[in-house]
Amino acid sequence: MNVTVFGTGYVGLVQGAILADVGHHVVCVDVDAKKVERLNQGEIPIYEPGLETLVRENYAAGRLEFTTDAEAGVKHSQVQFIAVGTPPDEDGSADLKYVLSVAQTIAEHMQSEQIIIDKSTVPVGTADKVKAKVAEILAKRGREELKFDVVSNPEFLKEGSAVADCQRPDRIIIGTENNDTIEVMRELYAPFNRNHDKVIVMDVRSAELTKYAANCMLATKISFMNEIANLAERLGADIEMVRQGIGSDPRIGYHFIYPGVGYGGSCFPKDVQALIRTAGNIDFDATLLKAVEARNQEQKTTLFAKIHQHFEGQLEGKTFALWGLSFKPNTDDMREAPSRVLMEALWSAGAQVKAYDPEAMEETQRIYGTRDDLSLCGTKEAALKEADALVIVTEWQSFRAPDFDLIKQQLNKPVVFDGRNLYEPGRMQRKGFTYYSVGRRVV
Ligand code: NAD
């Protein structure tokens, strides 16, 4: 099948590549000419495990193309994915300008029947807006006879395992009541739907809400665990024992109940805010989601508070080794990353940061440029040298079993602030470290 994907970010590029890999002929359109040029030269602008090989192989086979030529993109197929960004507007609601601009482009160039697929995360009612925009442009062109359907097909991939998630999706949500569209969508996704039927067909509004409900549920789990960890810390309990104690209940489960330094990334923060805003627009006070958001904002400041307290507010001139900059492991994405909140607080207090991340160094440089109080180090060990403490912000695999003797040797004093509970507090104490965790007790 011929497929067109608008947007070559984390979602569009991965989706385009996995669809090409099963044999569809995919054209990816982006307005960012530099990105398209890099892709055409075989350079992958983001880090995502497995993506580089997949893109290169399918590009070489001629099944995956990149272009800025929207007209050619629209003409290429009768299935148009919208996978562009929906960043938060000033008031927290999802900004639909990119989505509607793609809708306009499709309407301006379509010559035959089209299925327009909303893959971007968009508020309930967006498919209606896309429909209205397309109809308006077709009317202007005097081409009202051209048929089209707008289907909601939200994406549930996780950054860091996006390729695997798209190749083996847990579910394929199709939001439309049009039987012809359902048939085409089933054909498109058939290669990913062999083991058992993962397709769930529903009305378009329910599909749109499902995506927000999923992300808000996950964000709620994180904020809940962070709240309990804060309580554990103050009550002399150990959150790790509590986590295992509650995870053993199958109604709760072990997934996604790790406390930490708050959620970041391009999805949870903006999606929770957007649903709060959607609720506000219909005079519904989303009290639970507001609390989830507030706990998260608070949680992002807890590492700094511990550092501040340990050094009795004397942070001027101190140096901190920071391990982990990306908002989670296996990605270079720094959007809303807790590391940014921490670094900015440390800098405001006059401290220096020596940072290391396996993938996000380039992105950190792009965001913060060159500054005297930030050194980007080539290895995690290099960041330690003459630092006053080690601070762990992201739980990369390579931080899990470090050389503790070396850490002690390199730091000015053996102090570790661990925002991800990577180590055993008792063992750290026996090794001679002053060790701060999130809600753990030394036994
Ligand atoms: P992104 O910012 O990484 O990429 C968006 C791309 O769209 C950019 O390359 C941009 O240049 C391009 N673009 C903007 N306007 C365009 C236009 N008119 N025509 C063609 N291209 C255009 O975004 P992303 O992380 O891939 O997210 C895309 C959508 O998917 C968002 O709604 C997001 O909430 C949702 N989503 C993201 C994830 C994730 O983990 N990143 C997961 C599920 C859903």
- Going across the biggest sheet, name each strand in turn: 3-2-1-4-5-6
Binned, the helix content reads 40-55%
Put simply, the count of helices is 18
Q: Assign the structural class, choosing from mainly alpha, mainly beta, alpha/beta, alpha+beta, or little secondary structure.
A: alpha/beta
Radius of gyration: 24 Å
Strand content: 5-15%
What does this protein look like?
With 443 residues, this protein is α/β, with parallel strands linked by helices. The protein has three domains: 201 residues, Rossmann fold (3-Layer(aba) Sandwich); 87 residues, N-(1-d-carboxylethyl)-l-norvaline Dehydrogenase, domain 2; 137 residues, 3-Layer(aba) Sandwich (Rossmann fold). Helices cover 44% and strands 14% of the residues. The protein has 18 helices and 14 strands. The strands form three sheets. It has a six-stranded parallel beta sheet, with helices on both faces. Helix 1 packs across helix 3 and helix 11 runs antiparallel to helix 12. The protein is elongated. The N and C termini lie far apart (60 Å). The site of nicotinamide-adenine-dinucleotide has 26 residues, from helix 1 and helix 5.
